[in-house]
Amino acid sequence: MVQAGQFYLDGGAMFGVVPKTIWSKTNEADEKNRILLSCRCLLVETDDRKILIDTGLGDKQTAKFFGFYDWDVNNDIREKVREAGVDPEDITDVFFTHLHFDHCGGAVVAGEGGEPGLAFPKATHWSHSKHWHWAVYPNAREKASFLKENILPIEASGKLKFADKGHDLPFEFVEVCGHTQSQMLPLIEVGGKKVLYAADLLPTAGHVPLPYVMGYDVNPLKTLEEKKKWLEWVEKENVILFLEHDAQYDCCTLKSTEKGPRVDRLMSLEEALEA
């Protein structure tokens, strides 16, 4: 696991139609009505691959931009990868769940002379072909989340591939379209356990109840449908959910109740894999 930093987003936007009196029980708001979120990335290592899933916000935007989120620009994803025991030059693949700035911003850095370069220059960078087109030609609703400086240098580097067109990655992925077009959720098997990297289908453990859908989602009814399908599957198959944005917990498991899926256990990734 690679902790790329923490930031704040508006709690109302994060929970859509759910009243603050309800969502604030699990996600406490600050004086600006914002909740604390993590950029929790995942490092997947095999004998010949070192794959980083998502890269956090990065440091290329202005102080004013980062001020909206209280993002600490000193959270260099390369340093975080080094702390995890891997040289950035050894990262073979970067896999993007999607291209909103808080998921891909760290992949592109300002090089010498201010020219953009890749944080992981030897890595193949994986996106989804439909999502890539969606990001490069954004709709008005998502335009502020798709920043050209985070996206276009990847294509210009020649290191871009589309996982939906075929891949040799050591995991498969679930495609969901409620939050944004063709978000990819890696499904990783390790030590006989299955881990689903939930990304923005389920940003925090507080979002487990089915109606708790973000106001940011382009198709909230689609998200509702996808959550029902995949969370029921997660509970049935004893899959571990890896929570990219939860400020406290890496992972959770689910249980079935009369009201639908609910959190069973909250834990660190280490605890989840040892359980």
TrEMBL record:
The keyword Hydrolase applies. Pfam families: Lactamase_B. CDD domains: metallo-hydrolase-like_MBL-fold. Keywords: Hydrolase, Metal-binding, Zinc. GO terms for molecular function: hydrolase activity; metal ion binding. InterPro entries: MBL_superfamily_lactonases, Metallo-B-lactamas, RibonucZ/Hydroxyglut_hydro. Belongs to the metallo-beta-lactamase superfamily. This is MBL fold metallo-hydrolase.
